[in-house]
Amino acid sequence: MTPAPLSWTDTSARPLTGRDDVPSSDVAVRVRQLVKRHKDGTEANRGIDLDVRRGEVFVLLGANGAGKTTFLRQLTMELRPTSGQIEIFGRDATTHRARVKRMMGVVPQDAGLFESLTVLEHLQWFARLKGLAKCQARCAAVETMEELGLVAETRKQVGALSGGQRRRVLVGLALLGRPPLLLLDEPTTGLDPASRRAVWTALNRAVHEGATVVLSTHHIDEAERSSDRIGIFSHGRLITSGTATDLLGRLRKAYRLSYRDPFDPTGSARIELFETAADAFARITRRRLCEYSIDHASLEDVYFDLTGERFPAADSEEVRR
Amino acid sequence: MKRRLNEIACVFRIHLARLRVEAGPFLLAAIAFPAGMYLFAAAIGDVGSAGIADTDHRLRFLSASVVFSLSLTAISWLGYLLLENRFTGRLKLFATLPLAPSSYVLGILIFALAQAAIGTSSLLVVARVLGVRTGLMTPVGLLVLAALVVLAMLAVSGVAVIVAARARSFSEGSLLTDALGAGLVLLAPIYYPPEAAPRALRVFAGMLPTTYAARGVQVTLTGGTHVARELLVLALMAAVTLTVAFRVMRLSEE
Question: Does B136 reside within a domain?
């Protein structure tokens, strides 16, 4: 008999979870006053509060070392919190670890694969470890390979795959079993545009069918395009969260001026933000700029404004004469 | 229970697949080095010359080589594998699953036991080719030998798990497992008679599982089955090391 296909929301078909394992709460992830203090005293996360709603795509942005990975590792219970509370679908994650883990698909940031296993073997064995029956595991593996464009690599050992293909295998492992919550730490890092598209198509399909996604990325464009809400991390704190429009609305200086300093024509382009277009034009006149561009501020500007990080040098091609 | 067995079987099969590409180093550790040690010991032990109990010597060296093989497989090889899983991020794949740490350890221990069975059987075949005649003929003798191999393997595997779980870096862990894999054999009076060792070393050797394993294996290879004491001591040592191993093994971090 062919077992019923798994779905991202229907837990009755989930082999290792009971029918009541995912309570009807509207909140998929609830975090309260989450703190992670390492043995040397450094605080990687400082009092984080966050609610992620069911079916939402929540993207974490932040510089390297801002605390995103620590936060995700605490959600996946790979790292024990120093204090605070994590609830996944209404269940305390620290006291119901196994049950909660059954509801998750995870891509850890620096996970390794078994070089001598083929792509199919990886997906099949890990599907079995997630509790899928033998035939379900096979079907899930094939379906995942098709979804992520890995069919040509089915029988290839992972040791022979490119970095991008390995990353897709890791994403595939997370998708196996259609868990209602996907926690992905930089799932698209190192991927070429086609692979990124394949990953996002698979994630969007999961979300469309009811999955909740929390992921971290360094691609601000990806966050803007694909998220329902964005959280910005800085120095271990979640400094703000909201939709891309919300975040843009919070930026007081809504105009971005990129220019090349006329007294330093070979130097890199500079960026400044202004409250009004008139202010930006005033600056252009005052500094006698002849190589410049004005645009509406972007999510990238919000990010740099909120985190206090320095603007990177703008690409000279963007600067119009 | 069924779920747990499935987890253990999956971990075992995942690691078994490694042998496809890593059979060479495994054969070196489990067969080639121990067989080489047998030939070396037989050569410097002057086996075959007049006046020496030839069979006794050969069986002593063979049982020592079986234990050497077990030690290399259980500590050096297994330890390396566990360290590799931990420090190359493979452990994270298991850590994010609803998998009990004990299932992970048991799956790997069964893999190590399978390797031990292959190594020991191959060594006995090699010894036969080299002209060693053992008294291992009866099913009871074979069963006793199997029990000794399993218990010895578990006792030393526990050490590998502890080192791999506690090591602060890959190099620190692999240095320790390599040193222990060879050290537990060389410090125990198994290639030489106990009376040839200094008194302090004899006392220390009395605490090593390899000492009891070699003694038990030698008795069974000569056709004896009276190894209750060796079995008991090895069972106790296995219980202690595995209890500690299961306690220190964590899939998540503090």
Answer: yes
